[in-house]
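Holo prediction — iron/sulfur cluster.
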Amino acid sequence: MKVLSKAKLEAALNKLSDRNEVFVPMQKGQQSGYFTWKSFENGQDELMLDALNVYQSPKNAVLPQTEKMYSIKSQGVEVNIDQTYEDAHPTIIFGARGCDVKGIIAMDDVFLTRGYEDSFYKARRSGNTIIANACYEPGANCFCNAMEVNSLEPVGADVILRDAGDGYVWEVKSDKGEAVTALIADLLEEKEAKLPEVKPFIQKVDYSGVAEKLKSMFDHPLWDKLSQPCINCGMCTYVCPSCYCFDIQVKMWGEEGYRFRAWDSCMFEEYSREAGGGNPRGASKERFRQRFLHKLEFFKERYGTPLCTGCGRCIIVCPTDINIVRIIDAVKEAEINA
Ligand code: SF4
Ligand code: SF4
């Protein structure tokens, strides 16, 4: 098997960064997320490949938090596109866990299938390679196994790393994976390595039948109780590896300007407000229900898999202790004719 010694990890990241923008999990000051390897400052930043999940997921690499789309020029009532910014520069997400890989595969479903293609997302994904990091020891808030994620064999990864103590077993899974492997071929060794023992999930979650049951629970009183503590801060959606809602805005200086998109959140009142002033999800409960129905029911109906990948981030960040696992439990226990 191919093995990348941990002693050669920095050399490998340097080499990969010669031709790619490489995003790695890092603690950078107060922030933890995926940052470019070139921004890594020795002695100040910390590489977090051993952490199960950094605070921010790697979705920023394929769906940036803000993304310039077009520059525009107006002449009278006419507005013309001056330039389109579809960005296919080569990027690598290095060390993504299975839950985060599944988040990107879910966004592929949304932005690239069912007869609709988002050209901006398509360009970024075309240049993007995913090097996943298999999980052998789930954390206290992990439940990806219940949400159709295989943390040992993440579907959609181009390379899978397996931590074997003093090195990473390097498993190529696709042509894109072959291409990045060729860049560091001289750093990989052919040798045997012992893989870690697979530890059980601490959190037990049973999602079976939840999507189906939710079909008849839109008006169920449980949403009043469950949504009561939610302050609609949107933190859960920003850290989520599979939340992809965005808003498009225009910035103009006189007759020139540009359009850009930025992450938005279904938890915000403005998100669903219509031009005429009406809002189908004006109440906090309605937005809360939308988030959980989208994660657990609607996406499964449309794409055959839940939109929650079981990463546990929203459980950790929620300031009012709302826990998607407890919501799954509450749905399982609810009486339908209550
Ligand atoms: S993080 Fe918690 S309080 Fe904030 S919007 Fe999400 S569920 Fe509501
Ligand atoms: S809903 Fe929560 S647990 Fe599920 S993928 Fe998003 S952040 Fe992770």
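READOUT: Residues 189 and 323 are 44 Å apart (CA to CA).
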